[in-house]
Amino acid sequence: MRILGIDPGLTATGWGLIEREGNSLRFRDCGTVCVPQTLPLSQRLARLLECLSGIVSLCSPDEVALEAVFLGNNPRSAFALGQARTVALLATVGRPCVEYAPRTVKRAISTSGAIDKQQTRLMMARLFSESRKSLDKASEHAIDALAVATCHALNPASKNLQKISQEISQKISIAKPTTTSAAKEEAAATTRERVL
Fold first, then answer.
1. pLDDT tens digits, residue range 71-88?
2. What CA–CA distances, in Å, run from 151 to 1, 8, 103, 159?
């Protein structure tokens, strides 16, 4: 199973792809989407959506894990993070997606929920030791995204998420109503009336 972790941010959004086979985890790739702060907000969000959608398409994950927005004391920063989070959710539409609080992620990869960025990097390097060179070059945002993906992979509930998602998709596709030609003609006539 391929899991894409995303650490949303308006200026820099980290992403990390891992693969879970049974009880083993393997590093696949990671990176950071950087959007220039000089662009107007709408263009920054559009560029972030375009880049993340491309990454999701390229990585083709089975599941996605997002780091939840940490509110802190600055409402403006929280609002900006919320916008980046929304863009990340839009980029992953159609795939099972779960959010994890920062403390939950830290607790999953260490014995403490209070490790810092350097300790997170060390834990990821230890876990994915065969890819240490790639991880040494990775940004803090990419490392955080890998930690989120790892948290999801280690979460017992995530092992059933894909199965449940597939069952729901099958039920939805079975329940789709068939559209008769009369209904199609009526919809077309209504559309023409609105245009006129």
1. 667 777 778 888 999 999
2. 14, 16, 11, 12
Strands 63-67 and 2-7: parallel
Phi, psi of 50, deg, nearest 5: -60, -45
- As given in the structure block, the two tokens for residue 155 are 């979460």
User: Which residue in 17, 29, 22, 26 sits closest to 130, CA to CA?
Assistant: 26
> How many angstroms separate the CA atoms of 28 and 30, rounded?
7
* 3-state DSSP assignment of residue 130: helix
Closest CA to 2 of 58, 48, 50, 51: 58
State the first-to-last Cα distance of the chain, in angstroms, to the nearest integer.
51
Please determine, looking at this structure, whether the domain spanning 2-195 carries the CATH number 3.40.50.300: no
